[in-house]
Amino acid sequence: MNNSTTQKNSLARNLTSAGLLLAIGLILPHFFTAFGREMGTIFSPMDLTVLLAGLILGWRYGLVLGIITPIISSFLTGMPPLPIAVTMMFQLGVMGLITGLLRNKVNRLLNLIIAEIIGNFLYAILFVIFMGLPTHKFYHLLFVVFVIGLPGIILQWIIVPYLSRVLKKAGIYNG
């Protein structure tokens, strides 16, 4: 197989994987919210697919999926509601970007920790700005994001590295 064919196959595989992760990112939150709306806040299921995209497909796919997943979900389902979807576009875009940039530089868990800290801080800052909240609400929002969302963050730290290893062994990606 020549280099051009290999590149086309790789692009097709990456686009297919990105499409599948987008679909999962749109559907998965509904499974969690079936048990109550707060389950989406606690487990952040959309984050999982974006982090995985950055880790297995690289920063471009992670960034794009992070930006488009919350906005498409908002338009299709109303969840997350539009002001929150905009902040999530930045949050998830940055998380996908960082996991993609760091994917071959640090181990998977450290990669996710760095991406989640930066993405969640950005979310809290932008939420306060976009909603016109007083700056002291920033700390309350950080509490909500990191403490209430801790079960989801821990779940992501377990599932995302595991899935990336499984997909690598299966030959889905070579990162």
TrEMBL record:
GO terms for molecular function: transmembrane transporter activity. It comes from Clostridium thermobutyricum. InterPro entries: ECF_trnsprt_substrate-spec (IPR024529). The chain crosses the membrane at residues 15-36, 48-76, 82-102, 109-132, 138-160. Keywords: Membrane, Transmembrane, Transmembrane helix. This is ECF transporter S component. The keyword Metal-binding does not apply. Pfam families: ECF_trnsprt (PF12822). Gene3D superfamilies: 1.10.1760.20. The lineage of its organism: Bacteria, Bacillati, Bacillota, Clostridia, Eubacteriales.
